[in-house]
Specification:
globular; alpha/beta; 7-stranded mixed β-sheet; about 35% helix; 8-stranded mixed β-sheet; single chain; Rossmann fold
Length: about 375
């Protein structure tokens, strides 16, 4: 198969779809790989590293899209990229379609076969291609929140870990999944006062057993959410419904009751965000203020630590890329029901139910495509 890797063009996105090591693996299986010039500079991989791995180097993204049978990316295709997709071409990347009707419309109209990392599943009910980026984003949320709490950046002027004689900052994590767990780990490591909210008894028990006395674990009711959020210095939104738009758990009214200078970090922003006041930001301008509360809503947080993120991502995406390249997308999906769950759009049809329901499309089962 002819596999193409364009350079990411989203604001301050430094990751790349394939590392040189992944390229070498695909080439060793008899596939041709074409990589856009300078696509890997953000992870310290120059064009020569890709040539040494067996890739061809293309000067423009147009060359990639015109020739490749499968496009491997990291972030959702931007409008200029979507315009270059063609009927039957495979797109393998993060998509996050539910809160993005324009992207969904363009992908449907392209006729491309679009497989989303974030909805591929595993035997344990997890999202293995989303997990490493959730781990990165969860850990980064505390770094970002701690920085935003600095007075010069509009925050309260609170040091999360405190110092002897001064109370630590209060961190509230909404959601105890992969993002929330990793956020809590980082906050606990800084010696902050940490509370995690969730509604799943099994998750609550797991968190309680792991953190013991180092973090408080609370069942999330409306009253509990309001009490914790209004008293927090930093709130991390870490709620995910696979493939669907994130629920707006924190209302504008509740934001207005928070401390002036408090910070919210919405890690769910890729799926629309779980704060009613959230809107996507970029690494170039990561924060804004609503009702004196600093909002950090960067939609590609792991892009800031591109090398770590790219290698972590390739560890989980490469096996499926190989299966698609070796057997074709139809056979690869037929052989692996978990990979089939990644199919979101194919030949003009929406094949992921949560996306179809949220955006008003007819749902077509992926097995029928």
């Amino acid at each position: 198969m002819f596999i193409g890797v364009p350079k990411e063009i989203k604001n301050h996105e430094y990751r790349v779809g394939l590392t040189p090591e992944s390229v070498a693996e695909l080439v060793s299986h008899g596939h041709n790989v074409i990589v856009e010039s300078n696509a890997g500079t953000g992870i310290g991989a120059d064009d020569d590293a890709y040539r040494a791995a067996g890739a061809e180097i293309a000067e423009t993204a147009a060359d990639i899209f015109a020739n490749a049978e499968m496009i491997v990316k990291v972030k959702e295709p931007q409008a200029v990229e979507r315009a270059m997709l063609r009927e039957g071409q495979i797109l393998y990347t993060y998509l996050h379609l539910a809160p993005d009707p324009e992207q969904t419309k363009d992908l449907v109209n392209s006729g491309a076969v679009c497989i989303a990392y974030e909805t591929v599943t595993d035997d344990n009910g997890g999202l293995p291609l989303l997990k490493p980026m959730s781990q990165v984003a969860g850990r980064m949320s505390i770094q970002a929140g701690a920085s935003a709490l600095e007075k010069a950046k509009g925050g309260l002027g609170v040091l999360l870990g405190g110092v002897p004689g001064v109370k630590p900052g209060k961190v509230v994590v909404i959601g105890g999944g992969v993002v929330g767990f990793n956020a809590a780990q980082m906050a606990v490591g800084l010696h902050a006062d940490v509370t995690i909210l969730d509604r799943n008894p099994a998750v609550l028990e797991k968190l309680e057993n792991h953190f013991e006395a180092s973090a408080k674990v609370v069942y999330s009711t409306k009253a509990a959410l309001e009490e914790e959020v209004t008293n927090a210095d930093l709130v991390v939104g870490a709620v995910l419904i696979p493939g669907a738009a994130a629920p707006k758990l924190v209302t504008r009214e509740l934001i207005s009751k928070m401390k002036p200078g408090a910070v919210v970090v919405d890690v769910a922003i890729d799926q629309g965000g779980c704060f009613e006041t959230s809107k996507a930001t970029t690494h170039a301008k990561p924060t804004y203020v609503v009702d004196d509360v600093v909002h950090y809503c960067v939609a590609n947080m792991p892009g800031a630590v591109a090398r770590t993120s790219t290698y972590a991502l390739n560890n989980v995406t490469l096996p499926h890329a190989l299966a698609i390249a070796n057997h074709g997308w139809k056979q690869a999906l037929a052989d692996n029901r978990h990979l089939m769950n990644g199919l979101n759009v194919a030949h003009g049809k929406v094949t992921y139910k949560a996306v179809a329901d949220d955006l008003g499309y007819e749902f077509i089962a992926p097995e029928l495509c």
